[in-house]
Design brief:
Blueprint (H helix, E strand, L loop, with lengths): L1 H6 L2 E8 L2 H10 L4 E5 L6 H4 L6 E18 L21 E2 L6 H13 L7 E2 L3 H14 L5 E5 L3 H4 L2 E3 L11 E8 L2 H4 L1 H6 L7 H14 L5 H11 L3 H13 L7 H8 L9 E2 L8 E8 L2
Parallel strand pairs: 1-10, 4-5
Antiparallel strand pairs: 1-9, 2-8, 3-6, 3-7, 3-8
Helix pairs in contact: 9-10, 10-12
Length: 291
């Protein structure tokens, strides 16, 4: 979306927020134009409902997003029901993420009570802190239970696996959606069409995110995408090119540009770009949120 916006003469900025109500309020009020990674089908429904008339769903680009409790691959635990048996070994706590995250609220509302845990049995801090605890436990061969989700790069880079959820407390997988201020598609039809009918698998998403976040430095996103396309050639590249050819039949941008702009801001979400074209100056703000 960022590439197309720049092509049309927009000034594009990214804004990162860690509190879902504030982010959806900002989108509803038009302070943020698009949130490109909304768990709109279930995990973020409670944040979306108060602003339903002021928001517009532009569609999903990933259809298998799901949250779960996770453990190191070496763990003896196989199910959430096994956690009490290892309660002392895991420090008598489940390691969560940000207090205001949708996943945290889902744990409080659905998962913890379903399995007989108290809210105080989960500690919250931040996603980076959770990942440090997970990585340390993996390296030490120790037990730990963390809140996690997929698609997310640690699922492909860490020796980690979900615990079975026999009670179905986390629910079924859902999609990752672009959610915009109501009226966005009418006001910006080229951008709305730009994100239609595009989908990434878990492996494709995780691999690209990992390269951008962990393997390449600021300014090297293009090289990250080129490496990613070497790992995922063929079907994905043809699908990207077919989409781009329909939208810009004269001079469609390359698949590398589309992929890099789809994930622009993963590592540096506050990056701002200012460009002037013959179309004049317009502003677009894209939001990012810790899940």
């Amino acid at each position: 979306m960022e590439y197309k916006a720049l092509e049309l003469g927009y000034t594009v900025s990214w804004e990162e927020l860690t509190d879902p109500p504030l982010l959806y309020s900002a989108v509803a009020d038009g302070q943020v134009d698009v949130y490109p990674s909304s768990w709109a089908e279930r995990n973020h429904v409670g944040y979306i409902e108060p602003y339903a008339e002021q928001l517009e769903d532009l569609g999903a680009y990933q259809s298998g997003a799901i949250s779960f409790l996770a453990v190191p691959e070496h763990s003896e635990m196989q199910s959430i029901e096994d956690i009490p048996e290892y309660w002392e070994e895991i420090g008598e706590r489940i390691v969560g993420i940000e207090p205001g995250a949708g996943l945290t609220q889902q744990m409080i509302d659905d998962v913890l009570p379903a399995y007989g845990f108290e809210e105080t049995d989960m500690v919250t801090s931040s996603t980076p802190a959770m990942l440090v605890e997970l990585e340390n436990a993996i390296a030490a061969g120790e037990e730990v239970v963390v809140t996690l989700w997929n698609p997310y790069w640690p699922m492909s880079e860490f020796d980690v696996r979900p615990l079975d959820d026999p009670l179905g407390a986390f629910g079924e997988p859902e999609g990752l959606h672009y959610v915009a201020t109501a009226g966005f598609s009418e006001e910006h039809p080229e951008l709305a069409e730009w994100v239609e009918d595009f989908e990434l698998s878990d492996d494709e998403f995780n691999a690209l995110e990992n390269l951008i976040v962990n393997e390449y430095e600021d300014g090297d996103e293009q090289a990250a995408v080129e490496e990613w396309l070497q790992e995922f050639p063929g079907t994905l590249q043809r699908r990207l090119w077919r989409k781009l050819s329909v939208l810009s039949p004269r001079t469609p941008p390359t698949p590398q540009i589309w992929a890099s702009e789809l994930f622009a801001g993963i590592k540096r979400p506050t990056r701002e770009i200012d460009r002037q074209t013959q179309h004049g100056r317009k502003a677009l703000t894209l939001g990012l949120l810790a899940k």
